[in-house]
Amino acid sequence: MEQNNKKAVRTLPFFLIGILFVLLSGLYGGISALDAAAHFKDNLLFVLYELLFPASVITALFAALLWSRKGDRMYRAYAFSAMVLGVLYLAVMPGLSAPDELSHYSTAYRISSNMMLEDPLIRPAGLTAVRAVDYPLEDMNGVKTPLVPDDEESVPEVLGNPVKQTTYRAVKDWDKRYAFSTKPVASAIPDVHTTPVFYLPQAIGFSLARALGLGTMGLLFLGKFLNLCCYVALTALAVRTTPLGKGWFAAAGLLPMSVSLAASLSYDAGLIGTVFLFTALIFKLAYGAEEIRARELFALCALAALFGPCKLVYAPLILLLWLVPARVFGGGGKKLLCFLILLLSLIAAVLAVNADVLEAYFFPAVAEQAGNASADMRHAGFTAAELFSHPLFTLRMLLNSLSACILTWGGEMIGTKLGNLDPLLGASGLQTLFFALGLFCLTVADSDGETVRILVPGTRAARRAAREREESERAAASAEALPETGTSAVETGAEEAAQAEERAQAETETALDAVSQQAAAGEVLTAPLGEHVAEAPETLREAEAAVAAQAAASEAVSAAEEADENALPHYIEVGVPGRIARLFAFLVGALSFFGVLGAMLLAWTSRDAVWIEGVQGRYFLPLLPVFLFSLQSRMLQSRLPFKRLVPYGFVILNLCVGIRIFALAVLRV
């Protein structure tokens, strides 16, 4: 009890410091909002800040309350934090500001039209059909205001790209400026050809908005909000599922880049959540399960079939299945069979969705002739055959990219450039450093060495043994009980064994006394006495057999009781990853990491490039829990509960980042 009190006192200053950070950031944001309102003569900017700052303080207080609690229900604190922070980023970065969000918007709109049984295209042009009221979102050609014919923008801009002070005014006055009309018009924005599953939340939000007759802002909000809900559900389920490293998934899911993508129309939200859940389920089978169940294997196959076609570079993560011990599958042969089933499900999904893409990668001439090559692939200057035939060139490009861009990728993964890689809007250098230190702290071991236990449903073998035991007990109930004395068969056997041993000892002593008397008198051993002496060892053997039967019965009872316990839900100790397992996980993560670089070298990099082009830090977010798992070590230890302090610190830092984004955006022309 005293130890728990000491821990509470030790961690309390961290939660108070976090709230203080939000208050200081709020002071900075308030000065910027007042300056912007005075400079641009628009009081709306300060009114919005009057909503943003109190909401941030209240969020910090609730986060301190939730993350300060001990226990295994960390997923609840994470779900609250991720949802609130997602709404924060949705508010401070409105419009279509995320990377490639225009294309994601077009794809979700097309799927929404299919849901509503409407034609998703304008014929015969083959362009995506959108409502006339929604078309000004694109604003590619300087859209005129329907009610004011002379109102034409000199510089065409996409709403929210970039985010600036006029963006917030445009969002508020959108319905006044653009008349509501459901007439379908053509949108020239290309959509994304990938698995449509990751666009279902956005498309459902679009369909609800269109069915309810909401305007453009309502359509955008519902699409983004449902995408955020999907992300929070998947990542919170991952935090709940994994028996170890819950802080890894929580921290990775609370990075500014992760939350800002979740609060957009990007399919990265569903992709990150799916990969997180797949990895968490692997960790559960490897370190917190006694056997694999059919539904868990089905879940692994379904998750792999989802993220594989969307980003094939994450396919090597299925190799993490080899971290699971063979006993969980029921033997090495069944483990190999399960891996083959997982591999076949991944291959089938990839071929069903990405056959044209794979053809463009490896047979560019055929794909170009068939019209299957995308604009990105036509831009690329290399083919797979060239890269394989020139390994030294490929190695040089990889080394150049690592030496020149590794820190940039790390900063982008955390969130130095949010929006459409906007260098002004994102975490500052100091905030990025704090985020990086937090990730490092998650690799520090807990010196208390607290044993973690997890509830498991029991094994099939134990349940089967328990059923057989119950049947045998019912069948032998009458024979095992003695009606006269009311004693059990085990107790009766023990008494008989003791009596037999006493009789044998008495008979042996009698025989030895007789032999001594005859020897003293010089007499010869008589036949009856010889028979009596010969019977004594036999009696001893019977006594020993009775004792052995008693021990066997006791062992059988103990085994039956243990089988009964294992048949019911019970707690088991979570395993500790070994060095080999951590090294293997690092190699699997590195394989996906270099897969990302290889794919961008093949599909995006031009021939005159010095290093690989097109790589963004957000591509490595799904791999972050795997690398945090592989970097665990007992060399550095601390008594601080980093698994709770780090996610809470990330909540505070995200609130500061949100205030900073708004403070910079309102001063941006």
Integer average pLDDT: 82
The side-by-side strand order for the widest beta sheet comes to 1-2-5
Quick one: biggest sheet?
3 strands, antiparallel
Low-confidence stretches: 1-9, 523-530
Helix content bin: 55-70%
Strand content of the residues, in percent? 5-15%
Q: Gap between N and C termini, in Å?
A: 58 Å
Tally of individual helices:
26
Quickly give the structural class: mainly alpha
Dominant shape: elongated
Number of distinct beta strands: 9
Alpha-carbon Rg, integer:
35 Å
Gist of the model:
The protein is mainly α and about 675 residues long. It has helices spanning about 1-40, 45-65, 75-90, 100-115, 165-170, 175, 200-210, 215-240, 245-255, 255-260, 270-285, 295-310, 325-330, 330-360, 365-370, 375-380, 385-390, 390-415, 430-440, 460-475, 475-480, 490-520, 525-565, 580-605, 625-630, 640-665; strands at about 120, 125-130, 145, 150, 185, 445, 455, 570-575, 635-640.
Set down the secondary structure blueprint.
Blueprint: H1 2-40, H2 44-67, H3 74-92, H4 101-115, E1 121-122, E2 127-131, E3 144-145, E4 148-152, H5 165-172, H6 174-177, E5 184-187, H7 200-212, H8 216-241, H9 246-253, H10 256-262, H11 268-287, H12 294-310, H13 326-329, H14 332-362, H15 364-370, H16 375-379, H17 384-389, H18 391-414, H19 429-441, E6 444-446, E7 453-456, H20 460-475, H21 477-480, H22 489-521, H23 527-567, E8 570-573, H24 579-603, H25 624-630, E9 633-638, H26 642-665
Parallel strand pairs: 6-9
Antiparallel strand pairs: 1-2, 2-5, 3-4, 7-8
Helix pairs in contact: 1-2, 1-26, 2-3, 2-26, 3-8, 3-9, 3-26, 4-7, 7-8, 8-9, 8-11, 9-26, 10-11, 11-12, 12-14, 14-15, 19-26, 20-23, 22-23, 24-25
